[in-house]
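Dear colleague,

Thank you for sharing your sequence with our group. We've completed the structure prediction you requested, and as agreed, I am returning the results in plain text so they can be pasted directly into your records. Please verify that the sequence below matches your submission; if there's any discrepancy, let me know and we will rerun it promptly.
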Amino acid sequence: MNSKTVKDIMTTNCATVTLQDNVYEVAVAMSKQDVGFIPVVEGKQLIGCITDRDLVVRGYAQKNEGSAKVEKVMSRDVTTVTPDTTVDEAAKIMADKQIRRLPVVENGNLAGVVSIGDLAIRKIFENEAGDALSKISENEFAGAVH
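Please find the predicted structure tokens below.
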């Protein structure tokens, strides 16, 4: 059994936004950082997150302008893990919840983010990461017209 923890593989220099930011600023930050997920913080405390899909579904599709506040598009109910969560448990959470990224929180403060790519790139529990990605992808494409 591998005892690696999320702390060993998480990204710690994450781009973040605050409630003072607007949708346009989130999109620019995602573009600059080449990411599709940005945590929303108040100070260092995690209060939500925004995905590129949130920008489309809650932003653009709801006719929210670029000046719309972050609160209009962010998710507040975010699944998180702690730095001492094992990598295999993080992979299981991702597979069960069908999510690609998990904010890592310590005492309510954002410590980093672990992504499904972090699991696969570092060759840690490839089967679990692959299974998680497979389940996520199957779900995303289940409604696609072929």
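Summary note from our side: The helical segments are 6-9, 23-33, 52-60, 87-97, 116-121, 126-141.

Kind regards,
the structure core
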